[in-house]
């Protein structure tokens, strides 16, 4: 452990999270999450040599199901909460330039 | 003197309905009228549809008239945290992101309630996406604690607890990722149960931290917890983490446990790490009274140790935020949820929609979760936290070799004032110290009322048990409830 408090590059992480933040949010979060990260540092004191990680409290094994057909979700229902839809499709802004 | 209809328990209402002393329409009207009278002060709901509830009640009465009732919950009003899908009803998670979302299908827990004939009454307020301990993170409005309207009801299932304390519903459902059923139950003077991980299907529960989330009941008596738990439990092929274990009649099994207890006394452990600094003295005194009660009942009460307790909050906030950052990646403004119109290119649609749709606490947790999973930090944070999780779980399993249940306070502090902790997320996180480990270990836990502070605020007692031994907890809780009347006290509203 270096002893220095952990550094969180808020711009980099916000970009990874696809989250636009205002300058005020960046400042507040950097400060608040700095506190949290300093608190979290205490886990470095735990000896975890030879300890297996736990992803689920109970062992989870792959679950197979019979491949049988069943009534499917109708398209209208799947699209009922879409911000924009037309002809059984979700409408999104243009991704490819006309010139491209 | 009988309590007014809106303050009856589900167990009582079920009996009244069976004896045809009251109709489902009458009891549903009673909670609707009560809600109309007090909701402007409590604000427990995010949505209410009186006609929808009354139509279900009328259908229940018709079934009863034809002698075709669907079981003990038929005709009983149940209100649901706004995190579970119910076809045709709004599902907001108290977030602007889902402000206009209407569920296209039923969560399994909801489908089971409907199959049992329950009357679904309203959608209950919560911290946005279940992230918080005060319900102040709701994007719509804060909910008041019915015992002191200037204070928070706890969270994240604050609406589920406040609605019961205020008589706005008969029994409710919440969800618990780090204490979100037990802590608001304690702070509002009602009972709440977080089932063993895998006991109740998570299908149709909006995901926060998938390895920790569990749906569970809140009620005004212990029997109501067993009644509702029985209705929603069981394996579901649509949730691969739901476990294939038999679903007992929990209240019958609890009564059997209590009868066995007279032959072979139940052993209760007091984790010494839960009785240290930071525990409110009035809460400590109330818990000590409860300990004395269990000793007088012949329980073998002894101190045990959960040595990794001090690491639980750090472990939890790494694992829960990591899972949340992954789960909430689905809110991208494309297929459902809020879509920004303030965009310059196609990628911008994600970042802007999320910026406009999420509140501050959700953003904070997404940032933290993304950071602990990011390249170069994964081993130091996420993998290490998963290993400490193993140690925390091991502490519990070792303790349960010596005792049948653990007894602790539910919350180290009573309900705090609105706004008191909103500026300091770490202080808010630290208040979850007694409930968080249960979720990391996947264990069942419940909270029941065990007293009041001098200022009139409820105090909760927590019981934790071995996996799938909810009945042992219900037995211990029932024996306490039978000798105390805390659960019968009502706030003056």
What's the quick description here?
The complex is a heterodimer of chains A (100) and B (493). Chain A has 100 residues and is mostly helical.
Plain-language structure description:
The complex is a heterodimer of chains A (100) and B (493). By secondary structure, chain A is mostly helical. Chain A has a domain at 10-45. Chain A contains three helices and two strands. Chain A has helices at residues 10-16, 23-40, 75-79, and strands at residues 85-86, 89-90. Chain A has a two-stranded antiparallel sheet with strand order 1-2. In chain A, a hairpin with a 2-residue loop joins strand 1 (85-86) and strand 2 (89-90). The longest helix of chain A is centred in the first third of the chain and has 18 residues, at 23-40. Chain A is flat and about 55 Å long. The relative contact order of chain A is 0.08. The model of chain A has no long low-confidence stretch (mean pLDDT 87). Chain B has 493 residues and is an alpha/beta fold. Chain B has a domain at 5-263: Amidase signature (AS) domain (Amidase signature (AS) enzymes, Alpha-Beta Complex), CATH 3.90.1300. Chain B contains 16 helices and eleven strands. Chain B has helices spanning 10-18, 24-42, 50-65, 108-115, 158-165, 182-188, 222-232, 250-263, 281-296, 312-327, 348-357, 360-373, 379-399, 425-430, 436-441, 470-482; strands spanning 45-47, 77-81, 119-124, 171-175, 191-194, 215-219, 267-271, 300-304, 405-409, 445-452, 458-465. Chain B has an eleven-stranded mixed sheet with strand order 1-3-2-4-6-5-10-11-9-7-8, with helices on both faces. In chain B, helix 5 runs parallel beside helix 6. The longest helix of chain B has 21 residues, at 379-399. Chain B starts with 9 loop residues before the first helix and ends in an 11-residue tail after the last helix. The mean pLDDT of chain B is 96. The interface between A and B is large, with 49 and 72 residues.
């Amino acid at each position: 452990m270096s002893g220095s408090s952990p550094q969180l590059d808020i711009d980099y992480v916000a970009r990874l999270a696809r989250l636009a933040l205002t300058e005020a949010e960046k400042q507040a979060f950097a400060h608040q999450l700095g506190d949290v990260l300093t608190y979290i540092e205490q886990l470095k004191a735990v000896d975890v040599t030879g300890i297996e990680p736990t992803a689920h409290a109970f062992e989870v094994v792959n679950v197979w199901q019979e491949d049988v057909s069943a009534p499917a979700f109708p398209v209208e229902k799947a699209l009922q909460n879409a911000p924009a839809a037309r002809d059984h499709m979700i409408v999104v802004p243009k991704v490819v330039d006309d010139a491209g | 003197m009988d309590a007014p209809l809106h303050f009856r328990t589900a167990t009582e209402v079920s009996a009244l309905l069976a004896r045809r002393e009251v109709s489902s329409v009458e009891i549903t009207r009673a909670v609707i009228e009560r809600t109309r009278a007090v909701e402007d002060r409590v604000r427990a709901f995010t949505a209410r549809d009186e006609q929808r509830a009354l139509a279900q009640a009328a259908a229940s009465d018709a079934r009863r008239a034809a002698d075709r009732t669907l079981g003990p919950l038929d005709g009983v009003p149940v209100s649901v945290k706004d995190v579970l899908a119910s076809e045709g009803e709004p599902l907001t998670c108290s977030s602007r992101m889902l402000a206009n979302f209407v569920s296209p299908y039923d969560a399994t827990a909801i489908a089971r309630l409907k199959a049992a004939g329950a009357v679904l009454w309203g959608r209950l307020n919560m911290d946005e996406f279940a992230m918080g301990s005060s319900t102040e993170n709701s994007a719509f409005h804060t909910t008041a604690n019915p015992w002191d309207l200037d204070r928070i009801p706890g969270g994240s299932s604050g609406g589920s607890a406040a609605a019961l304390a205020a008589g706005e519903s008969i029994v409710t459902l919440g969800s618990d990722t780090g204490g979100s059923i037990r802590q608001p139950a304690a702070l509002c003077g009602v009972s709440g149960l977080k089932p063993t991980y895998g006991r109740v299907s998570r299908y149709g529960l909006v995901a926060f931290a998938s390895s920790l989330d569990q749906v569970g009941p809140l009620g005004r008596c212990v029997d109501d917890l067993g009644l509702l738990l029985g209705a929603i439990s069981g394996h579901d092929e649509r949730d691969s983490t739901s476990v294939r274990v038999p679903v007992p009649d929990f209240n019958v099994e609890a009564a059997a446990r209590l009868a066995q207890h007279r032959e072979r006394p139940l052993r209760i452990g007091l984790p010494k790490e839960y009785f240290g600094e930071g525990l409110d003295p009035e809460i400590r005194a109330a818990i000590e009274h409860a300990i004395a009660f269990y000793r007088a009942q012949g329980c073998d009460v002894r101190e045990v140790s959960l040595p990794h307790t001090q690491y639980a909050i750090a472990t939890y906030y790494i694992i829960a935020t990591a899972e949340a950052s992954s789960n909430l990646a689905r809110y991208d403004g494309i297929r459902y949820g809020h879509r920004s119109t303030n965009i310059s290119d196609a990628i911008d649609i994600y970042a802007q929609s999320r910026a406009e749709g999420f509140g501050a606490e959700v953003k904070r947790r997404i940032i933290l979760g993304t950071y602990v999973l990011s390249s170069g930090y994964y081993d130091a944070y996420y993998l290490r936290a998963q290993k400490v999780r193993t140690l925390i779980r091991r502490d519990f399993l070792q303790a349960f070799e010596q005792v049948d249940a653990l007894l602790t306070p539910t919350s180290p502090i009573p309900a705090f004032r609105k706004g008191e902790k909103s500026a300091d997320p770490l202080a808010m996180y630290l208040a979850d110290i007694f409930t968080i480990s249960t979720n990391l270990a996947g264990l069942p836990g419940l909270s029941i009322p065990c007293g009041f502070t001098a200022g009139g605020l409820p105090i909760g007692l927590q019981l934790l048990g071995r996996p799938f031994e909810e009945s042992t907890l219900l037995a211990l809780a029932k024996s306490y409830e039978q000798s105390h009347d805390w659960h019968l006290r009502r706030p003056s509203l």
